[in-house]
Amino acid sequence: MKRSIPVGLCVIALHCLAACDAEDPQPVWLELGAGLDAFESLEQGDAIELVHGAQGGWHVDLALRFGGLGPDGVQLLYRALDPESESELSFATEAVLQERFVRPIDGGWERLGDRVVFDIAAADEVLDAEVLIEVTVNTDAGSFSDSRGVVVTDEEP
User: Which of 1, 4, 59, 81 could crosslink 132 through cysteines, CB 3.0-4.6 Å?
Assistant: First the structure.
């Protein structure tokens, strides 16, 4: 009788072998983006939609692609900053990842539906303004970050 190994276990085993190969470690990479249902790349100067949340606050929807680490135990910190003064414009948004909260992509992982909630009283405090959106990823291997200067808009880009 011939036995077969499920394809999913083969993929997991190959991933573990690649991740555990000390001679050829995968380089760490991050890409900050936007999106609830699909990853949308964000380039410097792109527009990002300000969303009025159900609890009365204001936020932008973010996404992240990353590789060379995790995902289990990876700590994320999102912030919005004034690009000139570097003062905080948002509440800190933190998450500790588990594999069930990300989806595999070629060479890494993707996380959708994160957000930065602004610490503002009214939308006009950030509308049409440039804001620096930053994500910092903390792991046992170190700290890595990516950021984009974006323009907050009230229209879907």
Answer: 81
Q: Counting beta carbons within 10 angstroms of the beta carbon of residue 102, is it exposed (0 to 12), middle (13 to 18) or buried (19 or more)?
A: buried
Asked if residue 14 is part of any domain, the answer here is no
State yes or no: pLDDT of 7 exceeds 90: no
- Tokens for 49, please give them: 């939609």
Residue 39 inside a domain? The answer is yes
- Of the candidates 146, 143, 155, 144, which has an alpha carbon nearest to the alpha carbon of residue 60? 155
110: left (phi over 0), alpha (psi -120 to 50) or beta: beta
Q: Binning pLDDT at 50, 70 and 90, where does residue 149 land?
A: very high
The residue count of the chain comes to 157
User: Which CATH number fits the domain that encloses residue 82?
Assistant: 2.60.40.2550
Average pLDDT, the chain: 86
What does the pLDDT look like over 13-38, one tens digit per residue?
334 444 444 555 789 999 999 999 99
* CB-CB contact of 18 with 32 (8 Å): no
Domain total in the chain: 1
- H or E segment to which residue 9 belongs: helix 7-20
Give 3-state DSSP helix, strand, coil % of the chain, rounded to 5: 15, 45, 40
